[in-house]
Write a structure and sequence with these properties.
With 85 residues, this protein is an all-alpha fold. It has 2 helices and no strands. Helix 1 runs antiparallel to helix 2.
């Protein structure tokens, strides 16, 4: 497997992980009648459940950003190596 393929695979895995985590969070939110689906811009959380959901979404976003950043760095490094050949 060449470096470009390996980098692409890392990006694909990071995106798949992000999608699974978001779907999991959405399904848990849909199961609760008190938490509206995809209401990321609510002015103030009205319950501990809302605060926990917001915290989970923020953590998932940070994790995804970090994974995508690492994948992007790997792609840049691979492209840089290929340019110097």
């Amino acid at each position: 497997m060449d470096a470009a393929t390996a980098a692409k695979d890392r990006v694909d895995r990071a995106l798949a992980l992000l999608e699974r985590r978001l779907l999991d969070l959405k399904s848990r939110a849909a199961g609760s009648s008190r938490v509206p689906d995809d209401d990321l811009f609510a002015p103030q959380p009205s319950s501990e459940t809302d605060r926990a959901r917001i915290h989970e979404l923020e953590a998932a976003g940070r994790d995804a950003a970090e994974a995508l950043s690492r994948a992007a760095d790997a792609i840049r490094e691979t492209l840089s190596e290929q340019e110097t050949r």
